[in-house]
Amino acid sequence: MGLLKKFFAQTRKPNGVLGKMMINGMNKGHAKVADWGLSHLQTIAPSEMLEVGCGGGRNARALMKKYPSAKMTAIDYSDTSVATTKAYNADMIEKGRCEVRHGDVSALDLESDKYDLATAFETIYFWPGLEKCFSNVARVLKPGGTFMIVNESDGTDKASSYYESMIEGMKCHKAEDIVNALKSAGFSFVKTDVHASKPWITVLAKK
Predict the structure, then answer these.
(1) Where are the domains of the chain?
(2) Predicted local confidence at residue 167, as pLDDT
(3) Which burial class, exposed, middle or buried, applies to 118 when counting CB atoms under 10 A from its CB (0-12, 13-18, 19+)?
(4) Are 34 and 56 in contact (CB under 8 A)?
(5) Which H or E run includes 117?
(6) 196: how many CB neighbours lie within 10 A of its CB?
(7) Which of 1, 70, 84, 120 has the smallest C-beta neighbourhood within 10 Å, fewest atoms?
(8) Nearest C-alpha neighbor of 48 from the set 30, 75, 32, 72
(9) Beta strands 98-102 and 71-76: pairing type?
(10) Which segments of 89-122 does DSSP mark as H helices, in order?
(11) Are 149 and 124 in contact (CB under 8 A)?
């Protein structure tokens, strides 16, 4: 495996030196698409939030800034991501606003009906079975809770095929496939928005 492919492989589950480099790059490189996604959250006031696949911790912090009275639980199945998120949000952890823990969305070990808002930024590409994983997210959301998905690719752009060939286990899902999986998982209302000039997509689902 070439160095470039090894580096891109860290997108799935960052580990070691290359993983730390990838995470730092994600915090910066994905900031604009993340903030665009966050702009869709206009009518909710969560008290308990869950960030699934927290990566480098930047988006967990942005959510806590947007909702200054809410508490955050951030999970990732990468030990490197968990450690990085803890360091990035050390002050919020000290204040009791943020808990960061190891977690896998395919076997989500969290309390049912707890969270008002769950988010997944640039991560469902790697989830092993959308309907099953979405069902796990639905279980931990309160009735009426919101699940927001933000992806840099809507599955129709040319870059999608390239990255899928470079990163084992990556799948850039189209909007209709995400919507169908969410509805099959029990979400009652699903809305999608694709950026006007980029293949970015935000999906909002209500339990």
Answers:
(1) 3-40+47-206
(2) 75
(3) buried
(4) no
(5) strand 115-121
(6) 6
(7) 1
(8) 72
(9) parallel
(10) 90-94
(11) yes
Below-70 pLDDT ranges, the chain: 1-22, 25
The C-alpha atoms of residue 128 and residue 105 are separated, in whole angstroms, by: 9
Give the residue carrying structure tokens 């002050």.
91
- Give dist(CA 182, CA 135) in Å, integer: 8
CA-to-CA distance for 202 and 195, rounded, in angstroms? 8
Rounded CA separation 41/169 (Å): 30
Q: Enter the tokens of residue 48.
A: 């308990």
> Tens digits of per-residue pLDDT, 48-61?
999 999 999 999 99
Relative to beta strand 201-206, strand 141-151 is antiparallel
The predicted structure's pLDDT at residue 139: 98
At residue 152's C-alpha, the angle toward residues 132 and 174, to 5°, is 50
Quick check: pTM over 0.70? Answer: yes
* Number of residues in the chain: 207
- Which pLDDT does position 190 carry in this prediction? 98
Alpha-carbon torsion angle 122, 123, 129, 130, nearest 10? -50
What CATH code would you report for 3-40+47-206?
A: 3.40.50.150
| Closest to 172 (Cα-Cα) out of 136, 123, 138 | 123
Q: What pLDDT was estimated at residue 162?
A: 80
